[in-house]
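Section 3.1 - Work completed
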Amino acid sequence: MKPLRIFTLFVISTMLPISAQGEVAEKGKAFRVAIVGDTGIGERAYRPGFLAVQKALRESEPDLLVHLGDFVYQPQFFPSDCKPKYIREVKETLVDPFPARLFVAGDNDLPPEKWKPKASGCWNKIAVMGTALDAIPAKDSLPHPRALEGTLTLGPVLFGVVDNYPWKDPAEWLAPRIESARKAGKWVVLVYHEPAVTTAWFVDKRKTALKEVNDLKPDLTFSGNQHSYERFYPMTGPEKEGALSVLKSNSYYKGQGTTHIVSGGGGALLKPFADMQKKASKTAPPEVFNALAKRALMNHFVILDITPEKIVGTTYRVCANPAGEENPRWKSHKKFWKGIRLECDGKAPGVESFDRFEITRKD
């Protein structure tokens, strides 16, 4: 088992002004970001997996925790309120152990709707526990982000948060902020809940969200929602006919394309990819599979070690020690599970490196 590398823990108040936040990473050799999505708080999740992931996240001592949404999976239809026990656990496991937190709203966190009747409605109580996004000066003439959107400038990175509900092209407000960040030598990472590209349960967003994101040319994007792990090779496009220009390399230079990563294995029940379920209508087309670098059904998290010159990304597989009859599989009674392997099947409990990539700045 490859041990997680430990870095100095920087203490950051959630209400520090932006200038102070930007100084944090300059004091160390690397700025460490931990990324997780779709965690296991609530009754509709795989609690042993969540606890194992949370322990490993805490021991990695990141400077920033990024949560990609879906904090809570509660069991009731149209809950009247967010139960205090959920907020207590979010605070104890995903807030208190980490000096800075960037939180994204997931569909399970928003108020329940007809299309999502078991949504927890916990977002407003969760959002205030995240690190404050960049303040917008009163005299700022740039277009403003929507309510659940914004940027966080921390260390050598500009993080952009984009809302999926509903999705709207963020270029108007985000493009000028990205341009300023690039001039300042920052890396650009975008985060949102639902993937712009995935082989898990394919919805064709090549001419909408994927094109809009790739046109902004971020270095990385992270999303959750799909209870699995996927990393795509750096890509540009798509072209009019949906084709993607892909660089099939795990080590490449900044500007050669945008890497999209889906990280939804923080404790939610794992769901098989559409092709594993023989769901032809939701199986991704060949050009999307051609861009796929690696995928797996597993509890996991991602660590980024970032300097001004390089990003090193490592995905860690987390195998839990289940208690009793708890099962990490979504609808485990379904016949489609026959023959489908989870990444932790046959492996001892523990944390191990599973995937790795590097982005280097040329100049």
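Second construct:
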Amino acid sequence: MTYNMRTTCVAIAMLALASPLDAQAGTSPVIAVAPTPIALSAVPTPPRSVAAALLPYIGEYTFAADTQIVAEVNGALVAFTSHGNRTVVPARDFTRVNGELRLTVATGQPLVRFAVGTEEGVTFRVKPLRPITELRRNALAATVPAETGKRAPELVELVTLDSTIRLDIRYATDNNFMGAAMYSQGRAFMQRPAAEAVVRANRTLKAFGFGLLIHDAYRPWYVTKMFWDATTGADHEFVANPATGSKHNRGAAVDLTLYTLADGKPVRMPGGYDEFSHRSYPSYPGGTSLERWRRDLLRAVMESEGFSVNPSEWWHFDLTGWAEWPIGNIPFEQVGRRP
């Protein structure tokens, strides 16, 4: 499947910039274990939209062990290699053979463009190892890991604090990587300090013409177990281990993106939500300057409110101190009810 391309080009999978904002500054990509925090004051002015003529060339090209990421940087096509090199690439270096784009490099061997992740508007899917009904039954019957010494939970609903926060709760629909509804309701809850921090971030983003669109927040533990049991070991990097619980289970994590205030539409990022590919890395240098700027703006605003970005997912943010809350397994319908 497409997401397994990560295992065939490991160097590219971890390719990152010292800071994603450095893409505009002209530095070379480096191997990074975790993304470097971005100060909100360091966010530059938004770049121009990419010229339509350049869009077809943006992507990834490979032949044998040679893989290059072609991105748009400051209005030009730039190729990043797994060795940390970057080169401006003129459009004449691309050819089309039988409808297939190829990139000619110094060695003379053309690299062939290949598909990474998902196309715009297409949701990435896996085939669960077992039927959803069986996964759900087993997960609901399982025991939540025991914990002691945690804060008393206080889950609050985000939209009750700020009605301009929008929701697209993918796991309440079949528009998710599992291809089936995991939640019974399309709602978003977080522990109060986390929810209030998200509200502040949403207010800050309005000055840039954006609002927050929530894909996921508090997640009952049994759903985390379903994800784990449905996927193989190679994909467990992108799902939490139920043995320790997830930050989502604690109500201190949120998956989100930006929508444009002017039209209410979600923005395009370098990779899609819940995409099992290296385009999900917060420092992935591909895509366009504007896509990377949006991703970096979201991250800078969230980090200014005490969140940190997940090293594997540009959309996933954890509140500092997330471990203070217990693993939760309360269904959405019961949030706020007294025992």
